[in-house]
Amino acid sequence: MSLIQLSKNQSLHAALLLPVTNSVGAHLRRHFSSTETDTRTLTIETSVPYTGHKLEPPSRSVETTQKELLTFFREMSLMRRMEIAADSLYKAKLIRGFCHLYDGQEAVAVGMEAAITKKDNVITAYRDHCIYLARGGTLVGAFAELMGRRDGCSKGKGGSMHFYKKDSGFYGGHGIVGAQTPLGCGLAFAQKYLKEEHVTFTLYGDGAANQGQLFEALNMAALWDLPVILVCENNHYGMGTAEWRAAKSPAYYKRGDYVPGLKVDGMDVLAVKQACKFAKEHVLKNGPIILEMDTYRYHGHSMSDPGSTYRTRDEISGIRQERDPIERVRKLILSHDFATEKELKDTEKEVRKEVDDAIAQAKESPMPDPSELFTNVFVKGLGADAFGVDRKEIRTVLP
């Protein structure tokens, strides 16, 4: 519910979409004929209150603009379409191996990015496609990586679980459950050591919340007052197991005990933005904080999981109807006359075309050269011999 209602005569003129490019920044921006209206500030109240642990929660009133809301709609729609397309590519066997989709959780990636800069770091687990996109990655880079092609963001060598974009402060997806949390604290240690005044967002799931390395890293981060925000993306199911079957205490924002925490509606992009802004300011002064994002994944844990054996279809459809992050923003846009239903549908059509074009381009990318198997493995200059499986015949001698 808005605290400020704009009048009918402040409605938006017809929107003009930017042309398609390979830059995701261009994908996600939208220009309007009225710069006077699209920068108008309004205040929205978050869907539910924040719940704090050892801290005073931020205000539920979030400032935004119609331009930001339309950008959020487009960003999340692009991510949703990308993940649905990845589902089809996997079923067509163009994507192999593991593939963990993010549809349903888009508000976390988009809201977090709205509160930080590219000088802040982000590191996450294997559900990483949309985080990469939010950090400035391209659709072609995403699809090429998913299909193991040379133009992928990790040169086709990482696949779904190992997206990476260091120049935007994205230190990748990681396949070992919870192993990215000490790495994230290490990134924050470097930021503090270099006195950079930036922070690291370290993302993990509810399934990883019981891993020992999380608590070891948190202990060190608290001792050294590191600028790290530990973000538990609680989608309520770790692989095929409901949180109540795996965690005696599923209040993950309280798990830090001596570390403050905040529970956030992870399906509300404005609530996520407000929480991440608050968290960034907090950790630069006080050290680590835990954010629990109450979110939901529509797909199964991975493409090998139908996602319907341990939860009902009614549960999934109920979340879609009541809490979907894209539909929530759509309703806000329409209720404030920021765009018409037709304009939003046109945006979705443009997004679909961008995704289709990116897939076509990614398919044209060649597979990595076989020699790439030996790069980034051995230290240059030390030399190494590569034998065949029989350990008798030398196949390759590396310099």
Automatic annotation (TrEMBL):
InterPro entries: DH_E1 (IPR001017), PDH_E1_Alpha_Subunit (IPR050642), Pyrv_DH_E1_asu_subgrp-y (IPR017597), THDP-binding (IPR029061)
Domain Dehydrogenase E1 component as annotated: residue spans: 75-370
Gene Ontology terms describing biological process: pyruvate decarboxylation to acetyl-CoA
Gene Ontology molecular-function annotations: pyruvate dehydrogenase (acetyl-transferring) activity
Alphabetical UniProt keywords: Oxidoreductase, Pyruvate, Thiamine pyrophosphate
EC number(s) stated in the UniProt entry for this protein: 1.2.4.1
Claim: Oxidoreductase is one of the keywords in the record: yes
Keyword Oxidoreductase: yes
Reaction(s) this enzyme catalyzes, per UniProt: N(6)-[(R)-lipoyl]-L-lysyl-[protein] + pyruvate + H(+) = N(6)-[(R)-S(8)-acetyldihydrolipoyl]-L-lysyl-[protein] + CO2
Cofactor(s) listed: thiamine diphosphate
Top-rank taxon: Eukaryota
Subunit comment: Tetramer of 2 alpha and 2 beta subunits.
Task of the protein: The pyruvate dehydrogenase complex catalyzes the overall conversion of pyruvate to acetyl-CoA and CO(2). It contains multiple copies of three enzymatic components: pyruvate dehydrogenase (E1), dihydrolipoamide acetyltransferase (E2) and lipoamide dehydrogenase (E3).
Protein name, as recorded: Pyruvate dehydrogenase E1 component subunit alpha
Source lineage: Eukaryota, Viridiplantae, Streptophyta, Embryophyta, Tracheophyta
